[in-house]
Each structure stands twice: as structure tokens, then as C-alpha cells.
Amino acid sequence: MPLTPDQQSQIDAERAAAASTRRPVSEGMEARLYTAHPVLDHGFVRVIDYMGGDAAIVQAARVSYGRGTRAVSDDAGLIRYLMRHWHSTPFEMCEAKFHVKLPIFVARQWIRHRTANVNEISARYSILDREFYIPAPEQLAAQARVNRQGRGDVLEGAEAQRVLDWLRDDATRAYDHYEAMLSQDGQQGLARELARMNLPANVYTQWYWKTDLHNLLGFLRLRADAHAQYEIRVYADVMAQITRDWVPAAWAAFEDYRMGGVQLSAKGVEVLKRRLRGEVVSQEDSGMSKGEWREFEGVWG
């Protein structure tokens, strides 16, 4: 259960409150504010605050005063131009702050995206909840034979059940020992900052993660991709839906040029030109490695 009744009550109270403001708002993001979107078995993502929207991107790009007189279509065209030519600073004028509850091993992968402000719950001061991520059976997979960092065939039968039992039993036992070490019933009790070292990586943590739109889109380009690890991809998928509602024009350009687009190397461009001239080009005379050629053929045939 991602939220307790008390937490949901607090969110309802936050959403019921309203404040007048002179600053422009995004109606799509206003609708998302504070709502906790469930992820995995105990996790969630919710927007705590934000600044700017599509209009802020345009205003920054033109360094304009007020809204100006240009049509919405002109603004969308400018945003597409900025995205197409890899301009970054106008997109940095928008920011969002997320409250995320996620397994520790996902957080350690996520934190590699360093262009954000992060404040994580401290197990030096707080006792972490008895909540750990246990994968659904369909997510238990063997190591991929080709991709060293990916998954292969799904485990089945007795092997799958044995793995699930180990994951659940090991996490429960480690947390039991964590609580026992902290306990001051008949003993001094170990300091929280030391007891936490025994917790498994599938225990849930929480943080506030604030970033600008440019870096958020960079995160989503990698983590909302089909090749990303499932456990971080499901968080990115939820954040992608939120971002689409927040900045619809910027999201449409991002989907077109980043998520749906293809980047070619100079060798790739030359191979395409040779093919258009009617030449038959093989990997051996393309100048590409086997891995590059496999990716090239995956897109261009």
C-alpha cells in the first residue's frame, strides 16, 4: 500500500486548499499537484511544486516582456526549433519538484543523474518502514545472453518461486535484525546510523527531487526508454505523463525529436547516401563496428 489513510488525508487537504497568484500557471500541472501516483508495490511519485510552463520557455528564448502578440502556433514552432537545434537554457527556466518513494537500489541508479537538487530521508535520524520491493513474477528474468546489463527469459516454476521466497525471506530477516539492533528493551540498542547498514537494497526510501525541464527531459530520454531497467522505467513513465500535461508543446517536440528521432553518426550518414545511390553496403565496408552496424540495421534495415 503506497499511502496510509493519514497520508491520503493530508494530500486531500493540500489539494482542497487554493491560493491566488499573479504568476502564470500550467493547468495540466495544477491538476497533478500533490496527487500520489502509485508505482511498483509500495512506491509513488507526486509533484510538490513547479515553476513555469510552455510560455516560460518562449519568453526566455525571446527575452520578451509579457506575453507578446504571437499566436500559440508560433510559440509551438519556436519550441520545436529550440528542441531541434539542442538549445537548453530556455528549457531550464521551468522547474519541478517531485516527492518520490522508491527502493534503495533504484535510488542509487537514479542518483547518477546529478543535475538535480535531492533531499533524501536519513536513516541516521529516522527508522525506515518495513516495506521492501518484491518483483512481480513476470519481472523475474534470467541474465540476457547478449546484453550484459539486461534481462532475458522469464524464470518459471520452482526456480521462480525459490527466488521470490529468498527475496522475501532475506528482506524480512534483515529488517527483523534491524529492529532488534535498534531496540532498547533490555539493552542499549545500536545507533541508527550503524543499524541501517544491515538493510537490504530493496527497502524503500523517499526523497524530494527538484530539477529543471531540460535535465528532466534528459532523465526521461534515458529512463523512459524500453531499454531502461523496468524498476526505474515505471517511475519515468509516470513522470513522462506528468510532464506531458505540464508542458504539452515542449513534450510534443521532445517526443518527435528525442524519443521518436534517430541520431546518425557521420559514418551512418555516408552509408545512407551510398545506399540511396544504389550501392550494397555491408558491415565490413561501412567503417562501423559490429555493435554500431547492428543498431544501424535495427532502424534502417
From TrEMBL:
One of its GO terms (biological process) is methylation. FAD binds at T89, R112, H113, R114, E120, D212, L213, H214. Its cofactor is FAD. Binds 4 FAD per tetramer. Each FAD binding site is formed by three monomers. HAMAP family: ThyX (MF_01408). The active site is at R223 (involved in ionization of n3 of dump, leading to its activation). DUMP binds at Q109, W110, I111, R112, E120, I121, S122, A123, R124, R196, R223. Pathway: Pyrimidine metabolism; dTTP biosynthesis. This is Flavin-dependent thymidylate synthase. Its EC number is 2.1.1.148. The gene is thyX. GO terms for molecular function: flavin adenine dinucleotide binding; NADPH binding; thymidylate synthase (FAD) activity; thymidylate synthase activity. It catalyses: dUMP + (6R)-5,10-methylene-5,6,7,8-tetrahydrofolate + NADPH + H(+) = dTMP + (6S)-5,6,7,8-tetrahydrofolate + NADP(+). Residues 1-24 are annotated as: Disordered. Homotetramer. It is an enzyme of class 2 (transferase). Residues 1-11 have a biased composition (Polar residues). Coiled coil: none annotated. Keywords: FAD, Flavoprotein, Methyltransferase, NADP, Nucleotide biosynthesis, Transferase. It comes from Paracoccus contaminans. Catalyzes the reductive methylation of 2'-deoxyuridine-5'-monophosphate (dUMP) to 2'-deoxythymidine-5'-monophosphate (dTMP) while utilizing 5,10-methylenetetrahydrofolate (mTHF) as the methyl donor, and NADPH and FADH(2) as the reductant. Belongs to the thymidylate synthase ThyX family. It holds the Pfam family Thy1.
